[in-house]
Each structure stands twice: as C-alpha cells, then as structure tokens.
Amino acid sequence: MLRQLLRRSVFYVPCSEERKIQKAQTSAADCIMYDLEDGVSLNRKTQARSLVLSAIHGNTHSKERGVRINSVGSGLELEDLSVVLQAPTLDVILVPKAETARDIQVVAHQISQAKRDIKIIASIESALGVMNLREIAMSDERVDALLFAAEDYCSDTGITRTPSRQELYYARAAVATAAHAFRKQAIDMVCMDFRDMAVLGDECSEGAQMGFTGKQVIHPAQVDTVQQRFLPPDEIVRRAWRIVNGYQENYELGKGAFDLDGKAIDMPVVKWAFKILRRVELAGIDVDAKFQGSAPGS
After folding, report:
1. I want to staple 147 with a disulfide (CB 3.0 to 4.6 A). Which of 118, 125, 132, 187 is the partner?
2. How far is 198 from 183, CA to CA, in rounded Å?
3. 68 and 12 in contact (C-beta within 8 Å)?
4. Which residues sit in the known binding site for Mg(2+)?
5. CATH code for 9-229?
6. From 117, 234, 266, 288, the catalytic residue
7. Shortest CA distance to 36 belongs to which of 14, 56, 51, 5?
8. How do 31-35 and 64-68 pair as beta strands?
C-alpha cells in the first residue's frame, strides 16, 4: 500500500555534483528529487547514476526520496531504472516529458518487474501532454501526482514567458484540474527567479489558489517559503476546524445544514473543511491543540 504524504515542495538535486547532494541530504523539503535528467549533462549520466544510488542510500532524513529519470524514448531511461530500482528506500520516480499513457506504463512495468512499491509523478511538459492529461492520469494506479513543467512547455509551444504568467494559465489550470479529477496531487512550476522571494511568494499564492498542492524547487532558499505557502493560512484552518466541530455537534442532534457566524454550512462546505484539516495534519500540526477554545459557540 502506497503511503500518503504531504508533498508541498519537490526539491531537485542534480546528481552530477556531490557538493549539492551532500547539502540537500538534510533539507526540510517534503520531497528530495535526485535529478538524472536536465540537471546532468549527457557526458555525466553514468557518473550521475552511481552518485544517485549512494545519495538515496545515504538519505535517512527526508520524508520522501525520489529520482527524475531521463524521458521514455531518450534511450537512457532503462539504464536509469535498472540502477535506481536497486535503492531499497526509493519512494517515487518522476517521469519527465510524459505525453501518452505508454510513457508511464513503460516505467510502471519496470517497477512491477522489480517487485517494488514505488509511486510515479507524471511531468506534463508539452501541448500533447496537456491534451492527453486524462489518459496519463489513468495510465497506472502508481501515478500519484501530475506536475507542470513551464520551461519545457514554453519551448514546445513557442510561448514567451512574461512576469504576469497569464500565458501559462490554461496549461496550469488544466494540470491542476486533471489532478483533482483523478485524485492526484498537483505540483506547480519552478520559480526561475530563485533569488526573488517576493516573486516566489506570489507564484506560491497563485498556484495554491489554482488548486496546486505543491511546487517544484531548484534552490534551497526557496524551500521554507514554498512549504509555508502551500499550507492553508491559520484563519482558514481555524474556520475549517470550527466547521468540522459544528458538523459533529449538529450531526448528533440529527441536523444536516447548520449556521456558523451567520452563514449556512452544508455538506459540500463540511467536505472542504475535512480536506483542509487533513492537509494540515499531514504536516504534523495538532489542530485541536492549536485552536482549542475556538469551537463554534466561542
């Protein structure tokens, strides 16, 4: 059974640089993603495979350990998989440039052959990938998240990036919507302005509002901001907690809808509140202890 984890940040660590690997081993990121693809030049792929295996073995700190392999069809993916599937503590494999169900199924087959319990993140990086979101999401039960890669998408479509990010709205919204439709996590694009925390904060808030559950990270300085911004703010959590408590009290009285602060609360709102609380609990926060005394009547 694949365990459920919060995945607010997916932190890419190039496996061609031992120094960066060592620094990342104690990162607070929810997911450390060791990179064999774009972060590694073609002439360093063999070395990177040996480094990634030792990196996974040596990482006893991270909540989730993953590897971004080279894309299916690159001619490098099977050798990547033959190495990384030897790591007993590997949790997830990121499949880049996913465009069809087959791209995922090739990787899933190798995981099955190795008799491993490993999740898959499907990275959507092209117009065709966006058009095939449904079949990618449904391609295998191991698919745990859909991820949007903006730079490759722009390269594929000829779109020019602007500070407004308007040109990416359709593709981002499509990925987030498909992820929720098929009960997957939704991972937003990298913030390339890695030294500008204001831009990063804006992107995080925007992504969360669009329904993304996490974001890709390329620099250690981005991790804390991303982890915080992809948790609901305290006022939202407090309201969700009060809604759930109110629902439980009124359920005992045989009531369906009830009033809270002058607003009607029915089951869709209660379901939303339960989702908010579940997300916060996965982050290790004791909501009851945090908001005791904020019950519906207080």
Report:
1. 187
2. 31
3. yes
4. 125, 152
5. 3.20.20.60
6. 266
7. 14
8. parallel
Averaged pLDDT score across all residues of the chain: 93
Write out the two tokens for 78.
């099977």
The model's pLDDT over 252-297, given as tens digits with 9 standing for 90+, comes to 888 888 999 999 999 999 999 999 999 898 888 899 888 876 555 5
Binding-site residue set:
68, 125, 152
13: tokens are 């660590």
Distance separating alpha carbons of residues 251 and 7, to the nearest angstrom: 33
Q: Note the helical H segments in 85-168.
A: 101-113, 127-131, 133-137, 150-157
In the chain, the percentage of residues whose pLDDT exceeds 90 is: 82
- Structure letter (DSSP) for residue 5: -
Residue 203 CA to residue 9 CA, distance in Å, equals: 13
pLDDT tens, residue by residue, 96-124? 999 999 999 999 999 999 999 999 999 99
> Tell me, what's the pLDDT at 1?
35
- DSSP state at residue 265: E
pTM for the model stands at 0.90
Structure tokens at 252: 């005992």
35 is catalytic: no
Is residue 54 within 8 A of residue 87, CB to CB? The reply is: no
- CATH 3.20.20.60 positions along the chain are 9-229
Q: What angle do CA 102, 148, 163 make, to 5 degrees?
A: 150
Question: Do 14 and 20 touch, CB atoms closer than 8 A?
Answer: yes
CA-atom Rg of the chain in angstroms: 20
